[in-house]
Specification:
By secondary structure, the chain is mainly alpha-helical. The chain contains six helices and three strands. It is about 55% helix and about 10% strand.
Length: about 130
């Protein structure tokens, strides 16, 4: 039986002097600004409550009281998280009568949130989404 070595023990035995390998990857790398912006969005999502809110909003727009009931959290706590998500540009709100309904910025974001939660839960050994 072959034993896997810890990743920190896996190192190159020689220096690879083929510059084309690095150049191929470098040409496809987004700018530093893209990584900064992406990092800010991921930071906004990096809270279980906010991720739950985002996932709920993949189903349909919801108001604070609906999210509060669904997630068993106080309306002020939900509002706090929605403010962070709104400032990051992930969610928007629209007034519907007496209610302010929150929704995800676009369809691509809906699909990304679903995929992120479902795939990462499998990767981390959690439930299948």
């Amino acid at each position: 039986m072959r034993h896997k070595r810890p990743i920190e023990e896996i190192v190159c035995d020689a220096y690879n002097e083929d510059p084309t390998r690095v150049q191929r990857v470098a040409r496809k790398m987004p700018s530093d600004e893209v990584f900064e912006n992406s990092s800010m969005l991921l930071k906004a999502m990096a809270d279980p409550a906010r991720l739950r809110i985002l996932y709920a909003l993949t189903q349909q727009p919801l108001c604070v009281c609906e999210l509060s009931t669904l997630l068993d959290s106080s309306p002020p706590a939900i509002s706090y998280h929605l403010r962070i998500l709104s400032l990051s540009g992930l969610v928007k709100a629209r007034k519907e009568g007496k209610f302010a309904c929150y929704y995800l910025r676009n369809k691509l974001l809906e699909n990304t949130i679903r995929l992120l939660v479902e795939e990462l839960s499998q990767f981390a050994g959690g439930e299948k989404g």
